[in-house]
Write a structure and sequence with these properties.
The complex is a heterodimer of chains A (323) and B (280). Chain A has 323 residues and is α/β, with parallel strands linked by helices. Chain A has helices at residues 56-63, 106-119, 126-133, 148-160, 178-193, 205-211, 229-233, 246-254, 279-288, 301-309; strands at 17-25, 31-40, 45-49, 71-76, 79-80, 91-94, 166-170, 197-201, 214-219, 222-228, 238-243, 259-264, 269-274, 293-298. Chain A is built from 10 helices and 14 strands. In chain A, strands 6-7-8-3-9-10 form a 6-stranded mixed sheet, sandwiched between helices. A 4-stranded antiparallel sheet of chain A has the order 2-1-4-5, with helices on one face. Chain A is elongated. With 280 residues, chain B is mainly α. Chain B has 10 helices and 4 strands. Chain B has a 4-stranded antiparallel sheet. In chain B, helix 1 crosses helix 6 (104-138), helix 2 (13-35) packs parallel to helix 6 (104-138) and helix 3 (58-68) crosses helix 6 (104-138). Chain B is globular, with a radius of gyration of 20 Å. The chains are: A alpha/beta (323), B mainly alpha (280). Chain A binds chain B through residues 26, 61, 64-68, 83-89, 91, 93, 95-104, 108-109, 112-113, 115-117, 119-120, 158, and chain B through 1, 3-4, 7-8, 11-13, 88, 91-104, 106, 274-275, 277-280.
Chain lengths: 323, 280
Amino acid sequence: MGPEGDGEAVTDRPPAVSIEHLTKRLGNGVTAVDDLSLTVGPGQVMGLVGPNGSGKTLTLKVLLGLVRPTGGRASIFGQPVRPGARVLGRVGALVGGPGFVPYLSGRRNLDLACRQMRLSGGRPDLEAAVLATGLGADIDRPTSEYSHGMGYRLGLAQALLGTPDLLLLDEPTTGMDPAQVIEVRTAIAERVALGTTVVLSSHHLAEVEEVCTHAAVLRGGRLVASGPMEQLVGGTDRVRLEVDDADRAATVLESLPGVSGVERSGSGAVVAQGDSLRAVDLVDRLDAVGVTVTALRPGNFEDTYLDLFEGGRDTPSAPFPTP
Amino acid sequence: MIAIEWYKQFRRRRTYVTLGAVAGFSVLLTVVLAAAGPGQVEYVGDVPLVMVPRTSGLSVALIALSSTMKFFLPLAVALFAGEAVAGEAGWGSLRYLMARPVSRSRVLWSKASVAGGLSVIAVVVLTATAAIAGTVAFGWHALPIIDGAASRPGHTVGATLLPGTVLGGLALSTVYVAVGMTSIFAVAFFLSTTTRRPLVAVAGGIGLTIVSRVFNADYLPGVSVVNQYMPNNDIDLWNYLFVRPVSTQGFLHFALVQAAYVVVFMGLAQWWFTRKDILE
């Protein structure tokens, strides 16, 4: 880290990412990002979630200076983003999938990235990045022969080159097997521990809940919810119960002391909200009136997400794995 | 930045295949001429200029230049120019190149200068290989030129050029043809900034030579108004460097037409590339 290292005036530490009223209309007339405002503080891990086409990738591309906004502003560490902006030297990215020169080996591609970074004063460490890919001897094969997962590993290693202060990762674990997913999470966590700010888009809500400190939910290019993860999840004050009779369960739970609200979650589940709820008590009371609880767990980010889309005009296109 | 672009090209098999094909053409031409019977005459271009290849090796280079300038060389040039930006856009590596603190103009002009450099190399390789192969096969002799104005062209020697003179003329001709490739280069390069499919840009560059040929007043007198602004219809004027008296008429006009295409299409490339959204 070293955001104040380039001799800028040190006053308040500017947010790592600041997006104000960002709008992007595409050539076909679609408003892909619509009046989006979002701030990511230094050291935060922000998860961007939303259905396909909700504007996540495009927002990240605006932050990289690849796409010009139709309206609004975006800045990184207090400096406005435009194509080739100096501040991009502090950003590492894996956006829209990895992209490499196909006839060059993984190592040569990383070497090219290093040479490009040195042009703008960066000091990347090629050998460390090669190790970080975990590709072994495959690092010397042409990238055209790489599998999907290998490409993403190389892409992530490239994004991590030169210890960026801000990481922009667009669905970095797409198509990876569970072991690889854990590796990627570990790599991200290591950087976060060093103080790196991360903006991560993902369809894996459980992953976002585990990895991110904050989240923003997008729909149709608009922000529908954002905030610290515990706020979005509702802390431990939410209990999700799968029951055989959701209607009766909801009626019973609403009448209980300490329960401040009950939401239906899907067809066979309810989420109770309140102060210091004891799941055992809830199950007991439901059992007493003949409602069987088949499963229960604390409320999670997925419940919040599904709540946000329930009854809305846009339903999520359901790319989400159900546990 | 330019060094990085050169690195990418010189690590690429296609670069060597293209340049190898150009050199291979010259060698093949030499072999074919050697196989032809003695006294065989070759007509170079439309001008009354005929040379006897087997008396001077350098004539092979002139024949090579003349027979590739209308399609083969434009293809090689369009390949280098059309691939320059669209290739990386197709691979997805363009966005990582651009998501850096490097201005888009710098990326664009690095790519343009490397693709342009390769195009020049292609033209030079063609004539140099032909000159060397021709000299090895037929020797370093004076070149007799046949008098086109004579009653029986093809049999009356009009002048004899010393090898040094031919070499000078050959160098000028190579420059002339290289200049003639710049319009094709500029069109293919501009198209390369607008697509992620390199072949579209390559086809556009070749398309220009075809359009140029369609609007050729030599075949269609009705299009003489447009003809003079077509970039490739005067590509054979260098032939007159080997006629006595030497004529450079039309050279300046040709260069100006090329320059106009370069300014317009490279300007468009710059305008578009610095504004476009990298969505792929």
